[in-house]
User: Fold these one by one.
Assistant:
Number 1:
Amino acid sequence: MADKAKIYIIDVTNRDGVQTSRICLSKLEKTMINLYLNEMGIFQSEFGFPVTRHETNYLNANLELARKDALSPIRLGGWLRATTDDVRNAFKLVPHLKHVNLSISTSEQMILHKFKGKLDHRSVIKEMTEAVKEADKLGAESIGVNAEDASRTKMDYLIEFAQAAKEAGADRIRYCDTLGYDTPFTIYERIKLLAEKVLLPVEIHCHNDLGLVVANSLAGAKAALDTGLDAYINTCVNGMGERAGNADLVSVILAIKYGSGMQSYSLDEKINLKMTWKISKYASYAFGVPIPINQPGVGANAFAHESGIHADGALKDRRNYELYDFEELGRGEPEIIETGRKITAGEYSGIKGFRNVYEKLEVVFHDDQEATRVLELVRYANVHNQKPLVDDELCFIAKYPDIARKIFTMSP
Ligand SMILES: [Zn+2]
């Protein structure tokens, strides 16, 4: 490896985040998350499920945005089961797909009690390697192989599985702590051994069932980097994700940048935290889940001081009680809230009020025809989101009307 090994972020909000119970995003909201992640310099967004039919238009439309450089340089990766049928279907439905993660369970528990005789240890490896080869043949530029329940998988088998993935052409092995079972001590040891034996970059996918998700993600990444290999940490905005959630995007970045002993490890230099405030607030609104008051970086109390000694100390020198600056996270700007008359654009808006809304956003339409066309799309977007649109959504629709139309379109 020529360059020093680095930590990259693969955000899975649009996959693990949306497959969570009681949590969902509209296709427009998923698109906005991709756009914000791109602005934040995130390496890859796992943007959805290529074989799920209601995702097809959204996925193709987002890949079109990528080709127009609106979603670039971020990579858009699809999540699939590691079967040749799913791989073929994925590339049929989403022909411009370039990046995939292929998933299959590897633990004793799941092979015995989920596959129930349909697959054994041998055939799990066979299915996976055939799927990798198929994805490669169909033009995938990068392939991650997911070992589901890796943390409960016997180490020898996990190494054999990853070795086979590498030989078949995989670029990364995703170590999934599917149940949040690992601790920082075990995940470090296991990933260190895996990395040393297989010499394949490692993706770390952790869950928060024991409250250890960020610590485990860092420990796993450290093990890969200590072996000289790149690490890819899976995150979700605001720590969403199945059950107790995945690693919070902002917490992971802050921990790598400011955690004790982490300074000798390189984080993808494209990442900037300026978008933090915006993406967290947007995701909270889109998911309908408030940001906890004590959330790292973005909680209402993250930079609040009240007790005499702390307030005095923070005022004398912010470094007395703050590890990082709120300005770095895009906080500190006043937010203007209209307290007088406000015209909104909704499902039943008319052209006059609509033009007033867009004038405030400084969006100019060439003629009435264009304005009427965008108004119609904004009405549909409101039906689609079932909540008032934010300014960035309104601007997006005006800028990319044809792509927006595709995103809203679903035909079962
Ligand atoms: Zn997961």
Number 2:
Amino acid sequence: MSETVDARPLPAPDPATAPYWAAACGHRLSLPRCEACGEFHFYPRPLCPHCGSPRLAWTDVSGKGTIYSLTVVQRAPSPAFADMVPYVVAIVALDEGPHLMSNIIGCPADAVRIGMPVRATFLDIGAEASLPLFEVA
Ligand SMILES: [Zn+2]
């Protein structure tokens, strides 16, 4: 499932995050995985935070997780978000281990709870960008 809007600021990929955003454009959630110890991590880093290896490979993950923490934004931080309030900013604990900050959509903001199972969905913005978001599973 995806939606298309044009108001939000576009991602600004750099060499460290370009694979993440490229995967998102294909509606895939991809994270760095260590080829030495097998652990995933996020945010992207040049060395595995678990074992220190530089042997990392971007690997698609399930997009499944649970809400670890959340806040409900009541006041838009810029006009681009004015139509969204109230909305949920959450830390999602992915089944593969890493935690990721995103929005929870498709559910009234005051009904979202810590511990809810969620799955990734993607919001297309502009012509060449897509945001990984989450919906209650
Ligand atoms: Zn490692």
